[in-house]
Amino acid sequence: EAQVTQNPRYLITVTGKKLTVTCSQNMNHEYMSWYRQDPGLGLRQIYYSMNVEVTDKGDVPEGYKVSRKEKRNFPLILESPSPNQTSLYFCASSFLGGSSLFFGEGSRLTVL
Amino acid sequence: AQSVAQPEDQVNVAEGNPLTVKCTYSVSGNPYLFWYVQYPNRGLQFLLKYITGDNLVKGSYGFEAEFNKSQTSFHLKKPSALVSDSALYFCAVDGANNLFFGTGTRLTVIP
Known about the structure:
The complex is a heterodimer of chains A (112) and B (111). Chain A has no helices and 11 strands. Chain A is an all-beta fold and 112 residues long. In chain A, strands 2, 4, 5, 6, 9, 10 and 11 form a 7-stranded mixed sheet that branches. A 4-stranded antiparallel sheet of chain A has the order 1-3-8-7, with no helix packed on it. In chain A, a hairpin with a 2-residue loop joins strand 5 and strand 6 (54-57). The N and C termini of chain A lie far apart (36 Å). Chain B has strands spanning 3-5, 10-14, 19-21, 24-26, 32-38, 44-50, 56-58, 64-68, 73-78, 87-95, 98-101, 105-110. In chain B, strands 2, 5, 6, 10, 11 and 12 form a 6-stranded mixed sheet that branches. In chain B, strands 3-9-8-7 form a 4-stranded antiparallel sheet, with no helix packed on it. In chain B, strand 5 and strand 6 form a beta hairpin. In chain B, 39% of the residues are buried. The chains are: A mainly beta (112), B mainly beta (111). The A-B interface holds A 4, 31, 33, 35, 40-45, 48, 50, 58, 90, 92, 96-98, 100-106 and B 6, 9, 32, 34, 36, 41-46, 49, 51, 90, 94, 97-104.
């Protein structure tokens, strides 16, 4: 089954404790992206990647890191989480060139 | 720069009535436009897209959207709303291999 898998789905953590949200896709997509969803703000892009070892900043990259060492994986790293990073995070992937995005089920992160 | 506007945060419609969810866009060049739907506690799901060709695009679950270049709009429509259509709808525009999303419109279909 074609899917984008995110883990964990829910996480409560404390300020400053490093965490990683994993994302994996099984569709051989070149493009992967992370978004955060906040009420009234819609989806805002954090980072994206057009292929292995190619990553770029989106609209709200501050406080986040990513890596793309393999085509299927695109982890989101919060080195020192802060309460303003409390949000719902989505990973998505697609082929390049106007293809539709496949989304993961989301990861709800709370930073206390 | 690419951008998308969804002017209505909330749309209410009675079951069986036609529905419209509005979207306007700003993009340089020819736009690739998308609609996605999000059900509670789920990720976004693709509904339909416009790349080129016929201005009326048909998608999943009986939805369709009309591309209007002169009004820079891409409104989502359905002839007869179902209660199960109640969800959050996002319009998006593709700009250089990146999707820019609107802020979303919550559709509530009233039985």
